[in-house]
Amino acid sequence: MRAGAAIRTAIVLACSGAVCLGGAADSPRFSRDILPILSENCFHCHGMDAGTRKAGLRLDTEEGAAAVLGQGAGRSASALFQRITDPGADKMPPPDSGKTLSPAQIDLIGQWLDGGAPWEGHWAYTPPVRVVPAPVRNAAWPRSPIDRYILARLESAGFAPAPEADRRTLFRRIHLDLTGLPPAPDAADRFVLDNRPDAWERLVDELLASPHFGEHWARWWLDLAMYADSDGYLSDFIRPNAWRYRQWVVDALNADMPFDQFTVRQIAGDRLPNATVQDHIATGFLRNTLSNREGGAALEEFRTLQTFDRTRNLGTVWLGLTLECAQCHDHKYDAISQRDYFQIYAFFNNADEVNVDAPLGEEAAARAAAWPGYVARREALLAPVAGELDALQARWEEKLLHAARNPGGPDARWDRAWEVLGLVWGQGDAGAEGQLEGAIIVQTPPADRTQTDRFRIQNYFLRHGELMDPEAFQALKVGEIVRELDALAGELPPMSRAPAMRAARVSRPNRILERGDFRTPGAPVTPGVPAVLSAIHAPADPNRLNLARWLVAPENPLTARVTVNRIWQQLFGQGLVTTPDDFGVRGALPSHPDLLDWLAISFREDGWSLKALLREIVLSSTYRQSSHARPDLRAADPSNALLGRQQRLRLTGEQVRDAALSASGLLHPALGGPSVRPPQPESVTKEGFDNAWVPSEGPDRYRRSLYTFIQRTSPYGQLVNFDLAAPNRPCTRRERSNTPLQALNLLNDPNFFEAAQALAARSVVESPDPAARIDWLFRAALARPATPVERARIEALVREQTARFDRELEAIPPVTGAVGPPHTAENAAWVIAASVLLNLDEFINRE
Fold first, then answer.
1. Which of 133, 281, 526, 557 has the smallest set of CB atoms within 10 Å of its CB?
2. Gyration radius of the chain over CA positions
3. DSSP, res 524
């Protein structure tokens, strides 16, 4: 490799963020000052490949950095500096690149080299440090330390912040951001007239205390948790109890459960001392992986795939790292080996799925009162044949275990019986139980089984064990016994259940899977954390509970940073780190690293309170800026990285539908409960295999979109149209597209036309005077009155449509509908006007 190419490769590695080289706090630092210059002006970021390793060009070790950069010897001995100042063909950046470094930038790199360039780790792996923001000239603007960090950066670039948005815009913005719902029609008027100095703070506190806060912010978390109401894969069986985890998230967010507890309960709530039912339900986070219960599916293969998903999700959701890239080999860019990956995998490898009793209302008391009688009657029913049945079941279990240990035996029926026991255990009125749950009970010695497990495996045997001895089953009249047991069980008060996890009853060996293939186990591993992060006091007792505590340990530099970055992204459209799923060496550098660290430290010091973090951000001047485009920043900052204005954001699909239902008065505000199915075109339903979509009736038809049933193979069409997160992997940032299908959806979808009908009916009641009705409609939809031009256009539309319906009387009932105003030509015209407002760009966007 020529010297010029060698240096070029070395700098490419530096630009990938493989390391951060920096000096004292008051001198230039590689990650903060030098790397942005190199990556933005000199070189592309490609990471470290095998060729550079063979050449010995390493910047991910202290020794390699010293050799390549002349570390400690100053600019005069640095091959890097020589290439930057070389006037010849090997000059960096290359002469034909169209880029150049300014004298100030070259001098900054020289200062860094002269300072010794001591070796540091990647910026995201170093603990956050609270840095005092630089002084600002416009001292009247900041309301929060947040504003000082933002303003210092803006002023250093020669810009001022945007003016504050008007009060109506702010009022609608904060409602949509904190509760996901638009404000009531006249509420904005009251806020505009509220002259109290703390009016904004009062409003923010009111919205943070709203039960709708948890509903809105739960959707953000469920995107990360890949929540859905079905298994996935071809058959895509439903999960009727999945909603219990969703409700746990809503309740936890409304209660402002500290994020460290929120984390621990979802990873290892079952392992907490004196774990409650809610703690078990919280582990439903780990149950949101896909499950394959189809015939022919290999039990261990799909259990392994689920464990892969859990390992990936931990890395994505809490660490912001692409752990899955090390599943088959060492990570190509980050310092994560395949051994590191399988050490994390080992924490989940010995966790099993289980559905736990999770009573609702008075179910627990009713079941407890009825249970002794049920047990007595059950035993009396089975007593005449108990000995014969027990013997048959023992032989049946022995045959199943033999098939499990020796697959491919002479009688393939036993292989299939073992497979079915693991895949479809418990499907029926209660839905599918935890995958492998039946197989796990069979592997548990009878003396160690709970009474409920003994009854459940016996019930399964009586229905599926005829293979053991058909003649004996017939002689013992097992079919009749099953019918009587079913009748007896039908008299028991119902007991709701919830998906959860528990420590494995049957221990599994932990090994590296060569090439990520479950069929080729390799070297043994023990549960542990990646070596690059092991300084964060790796768990001494490696189990899921200590893993969860390690994630939120004060020394962990990632979890708080990753989380506050995503919260910022929800409020500004993009994070301070624009790659929310990748804080590794290939991820983006933070636009405001000191602010990111300040937020992360404050988040921890405020008791991991999500509401406190949100309150701090939305009370800032930065949040309250106008979102209007700024021509002066268009060229210098097209992506708004400097945050010289707020961001105009298209509402999520859920918010679009909820806003229409809320403005129209149709929204049913009940919290919680099973998923519902709003109407949708039959063509969408047919996208799924053996799918059946029966629209909900009554108030359930108008529930909040959070509660809409999510079928993995064919999610709800309107939400997909508006960029619903794919529920097959964690979504760290939703896309915001703009397509003709969205406009057609708003015009023609039954949900939105019913909303227009109801909005028109509501306007007729709330504002009988047609002259004032237009303003009422604008307040209901947009939280502001109409402008004179808008009022004139709506008046003309109503006149035109009234004349049309006077000519076409038969068209009136379909337009006004069952939820609309009385069937008159003028009222039908108001339905059209209401539909226009619900289709406005302003309606589906948050300014």
1. 526
2. 31
3. E
3-state secondary structure 646-664: CCCEECCHHHHHHHHHHHH
Gap between the Cα atoms of 751 and 717, Å rounded:
12
Find how far residue 18's CA is from the centre of its chain: 27
Q: Which position has the token pair 């494995």?
A: 504
Cβ contacts of 139 within 8 Å, gap of 6 or more: none
Task: Look up residue 317 and give its two tokens.
Answer: 């959701």
Work out whether the CA dihedral 497, 499, 500, 506 comes out positive or negative.
positive
* DSSP conformational letter for 536: T
Nearest to 431 by CA among 676, 694, 240: 240
Q: Whole-angstrom Cα distance, residue 834 to residue 758?
A: 9
Alpha helices in 606-724 (DSSP H): 610-618, 631-634, 653-664, 682-685, 717-721
Pairing of strands 649-650, 845-846: antiparallel
Answer whether 668's CB lies under 8 Å from 703's CB: yes
Token code pair at residue 730: 């964690």
430-462 confidence digits (pLDDT tens): 444 556 778 888 988 998 898 988 998 999 999
Query: Average pLDDT of 285-301?
Result: 86
Residue 16: partners with Cβ closer than 8 Å, 6 or more residues away: 45, 46, 47, 48, 333, 585, 586
- Helix, strand, or coil (residue 676): strand
Beta-bridged to residue 353, according to DSSP, are 501
Q: Kindly report, residue by residue over 336-370, the tens digit of the pLDDT.
A: 999 999 999 999 999 999 999 999 999 999 999 99
Q: How far apart are CA 844 and CA 654, in angstroms?
A: 11
User: Could you tell me which of 176, 191, 182 has the C-alpha nearest to residue 663?
Assistant: 182
The pLDDT of residue 427 is: 46
Q: Would residue 33 be called left, alpha or beta, if left means φ above 0 and alpha means ψ between -120 and 50 degrees? A: alpha
* pLDDT mean across residues, the chain: 88
pTM score, two decimals?
0.89
Nearest C-alpha neighbor of 746 from the set 819, 816, 660 = 660
**Distance between CA atoms of residues 336 and 325, nearest Å:** 9
For residues 632-636, average pLDDT: 93
pLDDT tens digits, 793-830:
999 999 999 999 999 999 999 999 999 999 999 999 99
One-letter amino acid of 560: A
Q: For residue 502, give the DSSP letter.
A: E
